[in-house]
Design goal:
The protein has about 250 residues and is an alpha/beta fold. The protein contains 9 helices and 7 strands. Strand 2, helix 2 and strand 3 form a beta-alpha-beta unit. The chain is globular and about 45 Å long.
């Protein structure tokens, strides 16, 4: 078992999906875990309850991570709860489900996606770095879309590509004290993608993945745990594709 014993980690978007799976896996590995949520307070509280049931400390911070005041408050709470951080996972984000060509995309959708997927990561990562202890690790959640694009979802793909560039920039800025890496899932079995899986969509999507299945959130949480751990102590600036090979099948 990979150990995070004695470490403290904050995971954004930790109320469900990949964030929830990562939070519980980190707690099982011995970490104290803070999770953030935007609107799903009950789900976030349940994650914290499960973390505590594993004998670890937990805290919950709520609000819009694109708001600097909210981010400042949450990380003030993180400092009060844990003193400092050994790990940070920038996971929160959105995927607008409507297929919309750029020529028809409303500016409001573009701005909203930028705020939730990019501004929020800038603000929260900046705040986390201010609390990070030497030897700490940052993991940013990108996507296959950030590497090969995604037609009719150019807003989403643009943000995820930017997160890869952010990762590569920060790995130089933060070394040698802090490592910064990225995981790049493709389709994942979470409620964020539920509409795409309806009416046979899951089967059609699975057929395009070399591993021939849509992964669970837990399949992404494992690589996140590895990157947070000391087993990855000489890994930084990497984009770890956790998408069943689908990044090669654009």
């Amino acid at each position: 078992m990979i150990s995070l014993a004695g470490k403290s980690v904050v995971i954004t978007g930790g109320s469900r999906g990949i964030g929830r799976a990562a939070a519980l896996l980190c707690a099982r590995a011995g970490a104290d875990v803070g999770v953030t949520y935007h609107q799903r307070s009950a789900e976030a509280d349940q994650v914290a309850k499960e973390v505590r049931s594993l004998g670890r400390r937990a805290f919950v911070g709520g609000g819009d991570l694109a708001d600097p005041a909210v981010v400042a408050r949450i990380f003030k709470e993180a400092k009060a709860a844990f003193g400092g951080l050994d790990g940070f996972v920038a996971n929160a984000g959105v995927w607008p489900s409507d297929d919309t060509p750029l020529a028809e995309m409303a500016e409001s959708r573009w701005r909203s996606t930028m705020a939730q997927n990019l501004d929020s990561v800038f603000l929260s990562t900046k705040a986390a770095l201010g609390l990070m202890r030497p030897g700490g690790s940052v993991v940013i959640v990108s996507s296959t879309a950030g590497q090969r694009g995604e037609s009719f979802h150019a807003d989403y793909a643009a943000t995820k590509g930017a997160l890869i560039s952010l990762t590569k920039s920060l790995c130089i800025e933060c070394a040698p004290a802090i490592r910064v890496n990225c995981v790049a899932p493709g389709w994942v079995d979470t409620d964020m993608s539920a509409l795409a899986y309806a009416d046979g969509g899951r089967e059609r999507i699975a057929a395009t993945i070399p591993m021939k299945r849509v992964p669970l959130a837990e399949d992404i949480a494992g690589p996140i745990l590895f990157l947070l751990s000391d087993l990855a102590c000489h890994v930084t600036g990497e984009v770890l594709n956790v998408n069943g090979g689908s990044v090669l099948c654009g």
